[in-house]
Amino acid sequence: MIADDEVLLRAGIARLLQDAGMTVVAETGDAEEAVELTAAHTPDVAILDVQMPPSLTDDGLRAAIRIRREHPDTTVLVLSQFLEEQYPLDLIGDDAEGVGYLLKTRVADVPSFVESVRRVASGGSALDPDVVALMVGRRRRDNPLDALTPRERDVLSLMAEGKSNHGIARSLEVTPAAVEKHITGLFGKLGLGDEPLQHRRVMAVLALLRSR
């Protein structure tokens, strides 16, 4: 389900997702209707713009939060033109699974965007690299992330973007084994040693989000 009041962008997203083998079950340009369509169709993923009718403020974001709360079987990917910290924090809350927040400019990188949609739909996360960089750059005092090495913070930032270990290794031009070593180190420093792997990844991303 795609919700965006920019008709051409909405049509473009629908086309590229269909070309990637996905089915678009519904489209709308209204935030309130997006919630209704989600209830009617139970899509795997709902893609919403932040700023939409009826008020053209943050209606899309509030609709996305409502969808996450009322329709847990539908994952949510929010698109925004705003480089903003609070919006993704409000969207994610205490659950970093099946959720994404990307700047609209990322749609132009079609393979990466399609990968992000698939990742969110499968229960993963996708945070825009620029948003992650903003959060990392504004860490508060007495921050648990201060115990991490610069490389461990790099790994955590890429983890927050939703990259796999192999994806992180490619981005940093290191081996997957080196990435695993850094992940083990940052998990230990964040006190995440006894949880299942996927849960530890989610908790590490939440630690990053809360570090602002």
TrEMBL record:
A Pfam family hit: Response_reg
Protein name according to UniProt: DNA-binding response regulator
GO BP term (any one): regulation of DNA-templated transcription
Listed InterPro entries: CheY-like_superfamily, NreC/VraR/RcsB-like_REC, Sig_transdc_resp-reg_C-effctor, Sig_transdc_resp-reg_receiver, Tscrpt_reg_LuxR_C, WalR-like
CDD domains: LuxR_C_like (cd06170), REC_NarL-like (cd17535)
One MF annotation (Gene Ontology) recorded for this entry: DNA binding
Ranges where the HTH luxR-type domain occurs: 141-212
Residue ranges constituting the Response regulatory domain according to the UniProt record: 1-119
Modification 4-aspartylphosphate, positions: 49
SUPFAM superfamilies linked to this entry: C-terminal effector domain of the bipartite response regulators, CheY-like
Keywords, alphabetical: DNA-binding, Phosphoprotein, Transcription, Transcription regulation
